[in-house]
């Protein structure tokens, strides 16, 4: 079958980023090596696997922008996304989605998503990068839980995110998220 699509010059790194972690930022940085144009899509995500949101969409977009700038990650555009990922990619002209995989549970979830995405948008590629072993255990929900309990998250998130988490959870015992 001939390849008529050509090279991919614009990729999207989607997520809820509640909050953005060093693991997310590692995937974003690596995406900048894959394509010359990278858009980070911060999803509205009304309900992600039963997890409550700590930050609003606007806060999460601002946090990702600040973290990307703080770490000096290339020229990356950060946008809010509401609706289907395939529609967002089509609207901004992205040819692929880049995501990180930490464990087999991520693989199973992402495989199902990729299968659905290819049915809705056959030309949209799914590109996966294996988690950096340094961040393989990091998730936003774990970061929220540690922060809510007053723990140190400085090894998991950049300083700008750590400051926001401290402000968010400094109101006393908020319990486990």
From TrEMBL:
GO CC terms in record: cytoplasm
Marked site: Transition state stabilizer: 24
Listed GO MF terms: ATP binding; pantetheine-phosphate adenylyltransferase activity
GO biological process: coenzyme A biosynthetic process
Claim: Nucleotide-binding is one of the keywords in the record: yes
Subcellular location: Cytoplasm
Residue ranges occupied by any Cytidyltransferase-like domain in the UniProt entry: 13-145
Pathway linked to the protein: Cofactor biosynthesis; coenzyme A biosynthesis; CoA from (R)-pantothenate: step 4/5
CDD domains: PPAT (cd02163)
Residues binding ATP: 16-17, 24, 100-102, 110, 135-141
Residues at which substrate binds: 16, 48, 85, 99
Keywords: ATP-binding, Coenzyme A biosynthesis, Cytoplasm, Magnesium, Nucleotide-binding, Nucleotidyltransferase, Transferase
Enzyme class, first EC level, given as a word: transferase
Reaction catalyzed: (R)-4'-phosphopantetheine + ATP + H(+) = 3'-dephospho-CoA + diphosphate
EC numbers, comma separated: 2.7.7.3
InterPro entries xrefs: Cyt_trans-like (IPR004821), PPAT (IPR001980), Rossmann-like_a/b/a_fold (IPR014729)
Cofactor: Mg(2+)
Keyword Magnesium listed: yes
Pfam families given in the database record: CTP_transf_like (PF01467)
SUPFAM superfamilies: Nucleotidylyl transferase
Family: Belongs to the bacterial CoaD family.
Matches recorded under HAMAP family: PPAT_bact
UniProt xrefs under PANTHER family: PHOSPHOPANTETHEINE ADENYLYLTRANSFERASE
Oligomer and partners: Homohexamer.
Function of the protein: Reversibly transfers an adenylyl group from ATP to 4'-phosphopantetheine, yielding dephospho-CoA (dPCoA) and pyrophosphate.
Name used for this protein in its record: Phosphopantetheine adenylyltransferase
Origin species: Granulimonas faecalis
